[in-house]
Amino acid sequence: MTQSPQHPHDPTPAAPTSADVARRAGVSRATVSYVLNDTAGGRVSEQTRARVRAAADELGYVPHAAARSLRAGHTGIVLLTIPEVVFGPLFTTFLSELRAGLRDRGYTTVIYGDSHGQDDASARAWAELRPTAVLTTVDAGLTPRGVSLLRRSGTRTVLTLGGRPVAGAHALILDQREVGAAASAHLLARGHRAIGAIVPTDRSLDGFSLPRLAGVRAAAASAAVSAGGGVRVERIDLDYTEESAAELASGWRESGLTALFCYNDEYAHLLLSAFQDAGIQVPGEAALVGADDLMLARLTRPRLTTVHQLLPSGDMLAALVDRLVQTPDAPTETHDLATAHVVVRDSA
Amino acid sequence: MTQSPQHPHDPTPAAPTSADVARRAGVSRATVSYVLNDTAGGRVSEQTRARVRAAADELGYVPHAAARSLRAGHTGIVLLTIPEVVFGPLFTTFLSELRAGLRDRGYTTVIYGDSHGQDDASARAWAELRPTAVLTTVDAGLTPRGVSLLRRSGTRTVLTLGGRPVAGAHALILDQREVGAAASAHLLARGHRAIGAIVPTDRSLDGFSLPRLAGVRAAAASAAVSAGGGVRVERIDLDYTEESAAELASGWRESGLTALFCYNDEYAHLLLSAFQDAGIQVPGEAALVGADDLMLARLTRPRLTTVHQLLPSGDMLAALVDRLVQTPDAPTETHDLATAHVVVRDSA
DNA sequence: TTGAAAGCGATACCAG
DNA sequence: CTGGTATCGCTTTCAA
After folding, report:
1. A137: part of which helix (H) or strand (E)?
2. Contact present, A305 and A343 (Cβ < 8 Å)
3. Which residues is A199 bridged to in the sheet?
4. In angstroms, rounded to a whole number, what is the distance separating the alpha carbons of residues B7 and B13?
5. Which terminus of chain B has fewer CB atoms gathered within 10 Å of its CB, N or C?
6. What are phi and psi of B14, to 5 degrees?
7. Most confident of B12-16, B82-86, B281-285
8. Model confidence at B336, in pLDDT bands (50, 70, 90)?
9. Is the pLDDT score of B43 beyond 80?
10. Which of A315, A295, A314 is nearest to A306 (CA)?
C-alpha cells in the first residue's frame, strides 16, 4: 500500500545550496541569508548584496523549503482534506478560491484525500507534514484523538468544514439537513403528502445525501404533527444512470408519490428526462426539487426548483484560517453557515 | 502579495521528537530510528523494540517529514499544477484518480495554481519544495528555463500534460484541435457549409477553447479544398449566461449559419435551451455539437451529439510518473494521447 | 560590515 | 545488539 518511493541509489546532481552561493560570492552563508531574505536593514553593503544576488542567479539557486521550515519551526502548510470522489462544480469553485486566498496569505496548500480507516492513521500521516493548519471538508473520519495528535505535533489550528464538529477543533457547520428540510417544507406547503427522497447509491456521497434525507424526514415529521399526520416520506436509492431513472419513472404512477426531492440538480435533471420520456407531467404528476442551484437548474424545461445554500467564500475562509492560526489557543469556535432557501422555478 | 505568515512569537508547545522518545525509552536516537523504520533486520532486541514503540505511542510521536526528507535528499512530493479556474467534471475525476494513484505509490501530491507571469517566478516557487516530480496540466507558463531550473534543483522529472511541449520536459499531448476537427468533420459530412464555433469569453478557458476553434477551422479549410471551396467558419464569442445565448438564438436565422460547434457539452446545453425557447428546431435549423461526452449530453432532448476524447486514466499516469522518476535521465518522451471521435446522437 | 557556529529533527555510518 | 556522531540546508545569535 503506502510505501516510500524507492530511488535507485540517489545520484541527484546536487542542487546548489546557500553555501555554494556564498563561496561563489566570496562571503559567508550568513551574509547570503541576510541578502536573500532582506533581513537586517542596512547591515550589508550594496556591493556585497549585488555580488550575492548575481551569484545566486548564475547558479540558479533556490532556497530549500524543508530546511527553512525545519529551522523556523513552522511550515506554513495548510492541509486540506477533501473527499475522494464527490466534487460538484460548487465545491470545485470553492476550492479554487480557497487555494488562491491561502496562497495570497503566504500559505502552501497541500491537498490530501480524507480519512480512510476509523483509527487515527490519517491524522498521523497529516501530522508528519507539520501543517500549520488542518482544514477538513466533509470528513467523517477525524476523531478527537486525531485532533489532539495534530495539536501536540504543532498544528496551530484544526478546522472542520461541513462534517460533524469534533472536540478540540473549530467547526464550520454546513448543515445538509437544512437543504432537505427546505425542499420538504416547500413541497408540503404545496400540498404534497407523499414525497420520495433520492439517495444516490454512490456511497462517497453519503456525507451529503444522508443528512439531506434526514432533513426531508424531519420537516415532514414536524409538519405531520401540526397537520394531524398523514405525511409519507420514502427513501429511494438510485444509481446515476439513465436505466435506473427510467425504472423509477415507469413505476411512478403506482408508487402513490406526487413529489420527489432529487438530492441535487444533476440527479433532478436525470429524473426530469426520464419522466418526460415516460410521458409523466412535471410538475403536474411529479413535482421535482433539486439542490445546489447550479446553472443547470435554469437550463432545463421546465426550469428546476432547487435549494440554494450559501457556501462561505473561499477568501473569507482563508482569512478565517489565518486569524485562527494567529491565536491558536482561543476557545474553539463554531460557526453555523446554514442558510438554505428554496429557489422556486417551474418543476415544483 | 505573497508573504510569509507571521506567527506572533512562536510559543508552539514543542512537538515530541525522536530524542524525546529515546529518552523516555532509555535508548539512543539511533535505536529509535531503527525500530520505528524497521531498519536493520534483527539488530535490536524484541524487548527494546517494545519499549521504544510504547514510548512513541505514549508521547504521540510522529516523525517530521521535512527533517526526514532533508536528510534523505528527496521529498517524494509530486507537484501538480492546475489552472486557476477551469475544472470540468472530466478533469476533476481525472485529478482524483491521479491523486489516489500517486498516494498508493508513496508520493505526496501538492497542488499549485499554474504559472502567472511569463518569468520563471512560479518555477522558482515550485522548486523551493524540492518536488521529486512536477506535472503541469494545461499550463502555458512553463519555459525551458523553468524546466532547467527545476531539474538543477533536484526535480527528477518534469511532465507536461495537455499544454505545448517544453524543451527538457516529457510531454503528454492532448491536442484540443482534434476535438474541434472531429466536430467540424462530422458537420461537413452532413452537408453543413456555414458553421459557427463558440469561444467562451471566459479567458481562463483559452487553453481549451482556442485550440478547439483552430481545429474547426483546419478541418473546414481542408474540406474546402477538396470540395472546391465554399465553407465558412465563424467565431462566436459567448458568455456563459442565458442572456447571451438568447441573443445568439434570436439572431440565428439571419446569420446564415446552419450548425454550431459549442465548445463543450455545457455550452451546448445552454444553447440548446435558448434555441428551443426561440422556437428554432434542433437539429433541423441548427445542428449542435458539444464536446467532452458528459452524462449531460445524454440527458438533453434531443440528445447531444458530442466529441469524446479519451483522457489517460489517473492511475496510468501515476504509474508513468513513477517510472520516469526512476529513470530521470532518460530522453524526454512525447506521447500523443489524442483520439477524439464523434459520438453521434440527435442534435447534429 | 561580516563571519563562525549552534541547532532545527531524523538517519546511517562506524565503533564498541 | 546499541550508542556516538556527522550530516542534510538554512537561519540567527554572538563576536570580531
Report:
1. strand A133-137
2. yes
3. A237
4. 14
5. N
6. -5, 115
7. B281-285
8. confident
9. no
10. A295
Which residues are within 8 A (CB) of B155 and not within 5 positions of it... i.e. 6 or more apart?
A: B127, B130, B131, B132, B133, B134
d(CA B56, CA A19): 36
Cell 458553421 locates to: B195
Strand C within 7 A of B17 CB: yes
Quick one: which of A264, A283, A272, A138 has its CA closest to A198?
A264
Closest nt to B71 (CA→C1')? D8
pTM score, whole prediction: 0.87
Query: Tell me, what's the pLDDT at B332?
Result: 93
Residue B47: pLDDT band by 50, 70, 90 thresholds? confident
Q: Given an 8 Å threshold on Cβ–Cβ distance, is A326 in contact with B60?
A: no
pLDDT in tens, A70-124: 999 999 999 999 887 766 788 888 888 999 999 999 999 998 877 776 678 899 9
The reply to whether the CB atom of residue A70 sits less than 7 A from any atom in nucleic acid chain D is yes
Q: In sequence order, which residues have a C-beta less than 8 Å from that of residue B38 and are 6 or more positions away? A: none
Q: In the prediction, which pLDDT does B194 show?
A: 96
pLDDT in tens, B304-319: 999 999 888 999 999 9
- Confidence class of residue A8 from pLDDT cuts 50, 70 and 90? very low
Do the Cβ atoms of A99 and A109 come closer than 8 Å? Answer: yes
CA distance B229 to B213: 19
Å from the B262 CA to the D13 C1': 64
Cα–Cα dist A344/A187, whole Å = 11
**Of B319, B250, B270, B259, the residue nearest B105 (C-alpha):** B319
Q: How many CA atoms lie within 13 A of B94 on its CB side?
A: 17
Nucleotide nearest to A45 (CA to C1'): C1
Strand C proximal to B281 Cβ, under 7 A: no
Our measurement of CA A282 to C1' C8, in angstroms, reads 66
Spatial distance between the Cα atoms of A164 and A174, rounded to a whole number of angstroms: 9
